[in-house]
Design brief:
The structure is a single chain. The chain has 699 residues and is an alpha+beta fold. Helices cover 47% and strands 11% of the residues. The protein has 25 helices and 24 strands. It has a five-stranded mixed beta sheet, with helices on both faces. It has a four-stranded mixed beta sheet with strand order 22-21-23-24, with helices on both faces. Helix 4 packs parallel to helix 6. The radius of gyration is 26 Å and the shape is globular. InterPro entries: 6-hairpin_glycosidase_sf (IPR008928), Glyco_hydro_76 (IPR005198), Ssp411 (IPR024705), Ssp411-like_TRX (IPR004879), Thioredoxin-like_sf (IPR036249). It holds the Pfam family Thioredox_DsbH.
Amino acid sequence: MKKVLFFILVVTSALGCKKNSDKVSHKHTNALIKETSPYLLQHAHNPVNWEAWSPDVLNKAKKEDKLLLISIGYAACHWCHVMEKECFEDEEVAQVMNENFINIKIDREERPDVDQIYMDAIQMISGQGGWPLNIVALPDGRPFWGATYVPKDNWIKSLEQLAELYKNDKQRVTDYAKDLANGLQTINLVENNVDSELYSLEQLDSAVQNWTQYFDTFLGGHKRAPKFMMPNNWDFLLHYATTMDKPEIMEFVDTTLTRMAYGGVYDHVGGGFSRYAVDVKWHVPHFEKMLYDNGQLTSLYAKAYAVTKNDLYKDVIAETIAFVKDELLDKSGGFYSSLDADSLDEHGNLEEGAYYIWTEEQLINLLEDDYKIFQEYFNINSYGHWEEENYVLIRDKSDEEIAKSFDIDIETLRKTIRKSLSKLKNERSKRPRPRLDDKILTSWNGLMLKGLVDAYRYLENDAYLDLALKNAEFIEQELIKNDGSLYRNHKNGKSTINAFLDDYATVIDAYFALYEVTFDKKWLNSAKNLLDYAQKHFFDDASGMFFYTSDQDQSLIRRTIEVDDNVISSSNSMMAINLYKFDKLFPSEGYGETSNQMLKNVQKDFDRRAQGFSNWLHLVLFNNKNFYEVAIIGDDYRDMAQQISKVYLPNSILAGSKKNGNLDLLKNRKVPGKTLVYICQEGACKLPVSTAKEALEQL
């Protein structure tokens, strides 16, 4: 690719610049005032003439032959706020932007399809990316320049140079944009691999062994900073360790989950996890709290509890769900997106983490006689110190160790800690709260719904199922359209954006899981309808994969095919697993063939980077180990199912009914007066048994 980079300025970090409290006077108002996204609304009174992303705006740019300036961020993004304060609220900056560009603001959480393309672009240009993501593109949307955070003076200088360059040497800019667009197409290609065999267990063992060199066996996670939560990594390794009998891998998973729960990345006062830790010991978080992390981690800790019966995991689940219910639940049953990293400190300045941190003096005054135990428990010392006089609560010892050091029993210790945390929570409630991003995203709700279902399945708490059902009904009523498609977003009764593949994949997965614990056929049927819609409108015959965007929506530069598992599993890996499971209940639909072909298309990358494809690796275990369909028929089918399903059995699915059902797996199974369990593979079943114990022995 041509290296026409002399005009590229990429700045990815900067010092300071605190943001003051939000302005109340509205000297300016732009087109974003019509939007529902809190992130876009934050910019609705900038002097910049922002527009939301739409075909009309792109057509306007083409008609006027005006460059696009596309700025992408999200509501909980710290550096997005900094750049808004320094640049987008500044009238001198706005004048340069308004004169030379069509300015578009995008909430990356609403429009991940656009964000994916421009993030790839900036990484091709500079080798790195982040948010805010600022792109300058031709009027047709093809990018040729990109930067993340840029201070005011450099921002003005860069924009003036870019505008002048386009005016005086348009062909040069166009040639570079063309080359970059071709590169964006190339890096997204997936070949339809029809010749290879499916990945073997021997290959999987080798891939995991290569992965282990990155394990931090002392502090958990990977040997690097920052440390992201990466729930799909530990979810697969839990599956692998239990299925393949790998105690050393299970020990690593246990260490990771324990250290995350001990760390400052977990909110010991209010429950729930922040997005990542900036250090190797999970201590200091980037304080934003995202629904998608907490949904996935609820699932993960529930499965780990089923394996270990570790009470720490049970407490984390309960506290995380309580946080989500208290802070992120809309009255409609949908879940909001996130809490901001920033909040007002005692001086009225917007500071990252201000809501969550403590000084030693504050803790001594609040806790009085209980302070000494609390100090030891949460390391109000050099280990727990953050910056200046502030501490972020972090554990590094078990309850047993702390109790022994104070010569008290475990229950006395826990009672003291609970009382202390309650005092802190009450005190914290008096502080200015972090800003809430109250838009509702379908895929993130799907992840949280799955988390609640798993929590109910493995902990048997009816309150979790009640909350799950409320959310599932919300999705059905507000996010599924009459034509069977989904919306991406919802706020105040309004949905505006068509869904993407991850929205379908997560809701299908969650509804299937909900069927497995309720046996209400409604959820299975809804999931299948969504699966069939996705196959019709997202599937690409040429690659054998699913596009991220529907054929009903306008395409920009390319239709992305997402395969890498990141902080959220890739939409294609989730769809491949959905197809695999649905094939067990609907074997004549061809779902299994599609799933296997998708796996073949990506498996060449497993050897070198298993952690980047961890959700795909479940399919390797499904295909190479026994996978069971469990059918339960009879009057007591629910009780029998609950006894079986609370055991961690990742290589299985459940179906149940009081009488013969219309699923192949449930036909002609009923025996009057008995409740029977059939353990089947590919529809061929063993002799039925009448107790959960016998069924589990067969499994």
